Amino acid sequence: xxxxxxxxxxxxxxxxxxxxxxxxxxxxxxxxxxxxxxxxxxxxxxxxxxxxxxxxxxxxxxxxxxxxxxxxxxxxxxxxxxxxxxxxxxxxxxxxxxxxxxxxxxxxxxxxxxxxxxxxxxxxxxxxxxxxxxxxxxxxxxxxxxxxxxxxxxxxxxxxxxxxxxxxxxxxxxxxxxxxxxxxxxxxxxxxxxxxxxxxxxxxxxxxxxxxxxxxxxxxxxxxxx
Length: 226
What we know:
The protein has about 230 residues and is an alpha/beta fold. The chain has one domain. It has eight helices and five strands. It has helices at about 35-60, 75-85, 85-100, 110-125, 130-155, 185-195, 200-210, 215-220; strands at about 20-25, 65-70, 100-105, 160-165, 180-185. The protein has a five-stranded parallel sheet, covered by helices on one side. Helix 1 runs antiparallel to helix 6 and helix 4 runs antiparallel to helix 5 (about 130-155). The chain is globular and about 55 Å long. The chain starts with 19 loop residues before the first strand and ends in a 6-residue tail after the last helix.
């Protein structure tokens, strides 16, 4: 059962200290790099996450391992990949690695890249039902394979060990004996409200960035169109 930080109830089991534990953090990235307001909110979010983790480690257990969804690289390469798009996240990770936590790659590179490719193909849409069926079946197979791989990695936790899992998507399944803590600082709610309040202007900005003029579109596009 997941618990939100700030609403955590004391474990009833006497051997709680021996339980395997998983701290879950939502990986919020800089979705609007040109917007200064969102950048400030993002910095506040990751600062709050760091503070909450510090408090949780004192009461529930020190972090043994750190996993980041979408990362198959070793720590140095993963840090470089994340640094530009999500400096707050990687700083949280680096602080704990310096304190003794061990970063462990969570993904299988081939499985992850294959899933990304099938996802992109599915997003193109279909005319043929036969092709749609092929794509959906292959997507389902690789998605299941990836989920099994991630679950197996998380399940490597030993008695009394704690892992920090920085997640990009929900729906992952974990062993029933792993105690989970969802770390959700007030800063996340503030970010969600800001996005809702600015939804229309953000959508317009995104549309402007995605829509080239017709001349550029014809010159640069290599896609076949009927």
